[in-house]
């Protein structure tokens, strides 16, 4: 049998970026031989094995043919006579369809290196359209590699649009959608994931709540970019600059979903969006099975961002009420996360990228002041039962007011 390094590891090594996981392809072998060498079988649909020591993935070379709808509708053929070239041609992108031998020789039958040098994300063959997941994967690779100058080839974009129009994207499971969205949040430019999906018409199928923000106007005085979709992409970009936390990046992307349901008669004003957005985020998170940690932060940011922006005008008692609602006493890291999202929202407007955001310090100071009040002092002063809570709030308000 011959073993080759394939996929992302080859690509990322050539790009001089860190390689996190190594995928291998095995030519000229069969499951029995793999098992006898100590590998364990993991693939349910495909012949994939884990190396006994490194636990890296080794897949038997295979060919694939479309046989039904969606990601699982594949007929997969693996046999010792499947060649490396036959295995590589079923892969999504030319830059993902290169292999490397143990001695470092590159095998590149489909022009991966040329496209890597030209910074092009290009499909390997027209069989690209057979798997709708590739639309999401491509958008994710665009997000990962855009800072190196990569763009999507025009012909590939057309195939993505063809998939988006075919109805095949509707067969993608929630897990697949979240898996790619989640991975895109960890890239340098998560906003590109959304914009590429938007450009090929996939966003309206996969995440219609985000797609419908495009074309919704906001008041020009606050939002020179006007369009809510454009604003959302800008906020997503700023959030990635400000924080490496994936929940923060996610919350920033969905914070304005409420603006998508404002009646047109009220445009460009969106008085209720913090309220209406909550319901939409809950439904979206349920559908895509977004983990709770992400959902919770997104809900707080949606509900509170307009309040936080008004920090300078708020009374001490209102600031405390907001801090109480955020439950920052039990989860202190939450305040910083919410404030970073609000800052991204503020900076994600045309011409405002470098504007200061004093609201953040106002809330941090209010939090610190409120935290200086000691419950044990309140008890020592003779308060009992429910009156402790009331006195705590009262002293916290005084503490916040004293720094104003
Ligand atoms: P990364 O691991 O950095 O996310 P990767 O390119 O290694 O990127 P994997 O999901 O690990 O992506 O897949 C390994 C390789 O398998 C890919 O490079 C590609 O060649 C192929 N591949 C994976 N999924 C698909 C798919 N849906 N369609 C076509 N080829 C795919
Ligand atoms: Mg990989």
From TrEMBL:
GO terms for biological process: RNA repair; tRNA 3'-terminal CCA addition. Transmembrane segments: none annotated. Nickel for phosphatase activity. Magnesium is required for nucleotidyltransferase activity. It comes from the Bacteria. Its cofactor is Ni(2+); Mg(2+). Residues 228-329 form the HD domain. ATP binds at residues 8, 11, 91, 137, 140. It catalyses: a tRNA precursor + 2 CTP + ATP = a tRNA with a 3' CCA end + 3 diphosphate; a tRNA with a 3' CCA end + 2 CTP + ATP = a tRNA with a 3' CCACCA end + 3 diphosphate. CTP binds at residues 8, 11, 91, 137, 140. Coiled coil: none annotated. One of its GO terms (molecular function) is magnesium ion binding. Keywords: ATP-binding, Hydrolase, Magnesium, Metal-binding, Multifunctional enzyme, Nickel, Nucleotide-binding, Nucleotidyltransferase, RNA repair, RNA-binding, Transferase, tRNA processing. Mg(2+) binds at residues 21, 23. Its EC number is 2.7.7.72, 3.1.3.-, 3.1.4.-. Monomer. Can also form homodimers and oligomers. Comprises two domains: an N-terminal domain containing the nucleotidyltransferase activity and a C-terminal HD domain associated with both phosphodiesterase and phosphatase activities. This is Multifunctional CCA protein. It comes from Vibrio ziniensis. The lineage of its organism: Bacteria, Pseudomonadati, Pseudomonadota, Gammaproteobacteria, Vibrionales.
């Amino acid at each position: 049998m011959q073993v080759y390094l394939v996929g992302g590891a080859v690509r990322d090594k050539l790009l001089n970026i860190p390689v996190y996981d190594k995928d291998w392809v095995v030519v000229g072998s069969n499951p029995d031989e793999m098992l006898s060498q100590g590998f364990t079988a993991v693939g349910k649909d495909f012949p994939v094995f884990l190396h006994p020591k490194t636990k890296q993935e080794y897949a038997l070379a295979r060919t694939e043919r479309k046989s039904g709808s969606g990601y699982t509708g594949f007929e997969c053929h693996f046999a010792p006579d499947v060649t490396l070239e036959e295995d590589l041609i079923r892969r999504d992108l030319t830059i993902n369809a290169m292999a490397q031998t143990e001695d470092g020789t590159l095998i590149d039958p489909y022009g991966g290196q040329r496209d890597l040098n030209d910074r092009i994300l290009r499909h390997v063959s027209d069989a690209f359209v057979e798997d709708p997941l590739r639309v999401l994967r491509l958008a994710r690779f665009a997000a990962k590699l855009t800072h190196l100058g990569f763009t999507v080839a025009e012909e590939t974009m057309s195939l993505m649009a063809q998939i988006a129009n075919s109805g095949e994207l509707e067969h993608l499971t929630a897990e697949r959608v979240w898996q790619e969205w989640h991975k895109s949040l960890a890239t340098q430019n998560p906003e590109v994931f959304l914009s590429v999906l938007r450009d090929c018409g996939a966003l309206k199928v996969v995440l219609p709540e985000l797609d419908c923000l495009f074309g919704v106007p906001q008041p020009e005085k606050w939002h020179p970019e006007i369009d809510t979709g454009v604003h959302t992409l800008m906020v997503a970009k700023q959030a990635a600059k400000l924080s490496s936390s994936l929940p923060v990046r996610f919350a920033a992307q969905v914070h304005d979903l409420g603006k998508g349901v404002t009646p047109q008669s009220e445009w460009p004003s969106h008085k209720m969006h913090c309220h209406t957005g909550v319901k939409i985020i809950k439904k979206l998170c349920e559908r895509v099975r977004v983990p709770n940690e992400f959902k919770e932060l997104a809900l707080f940011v949606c509900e509170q961002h307009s309040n936080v922006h008004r920090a300078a005008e708020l009374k001490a008692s209102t600031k405390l009420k907001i801090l109480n609602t955020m439950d920052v006493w039990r989860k202190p890291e939450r305040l910083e996360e919410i404030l970073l999202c609000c800052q991204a929202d503020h900076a994600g407007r045309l011409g405002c990228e470098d504007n200061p955001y004093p609201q953040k310090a106002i809330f941090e100071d209010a939090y610190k002041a409120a935290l200086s009040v000691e419950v044990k002092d309140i008890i020592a002063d003779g308060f009992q039962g429910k009156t402790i809570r009331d006195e705590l709030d009262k002293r916290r308000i005084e503490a916040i007011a004293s720094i104003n």
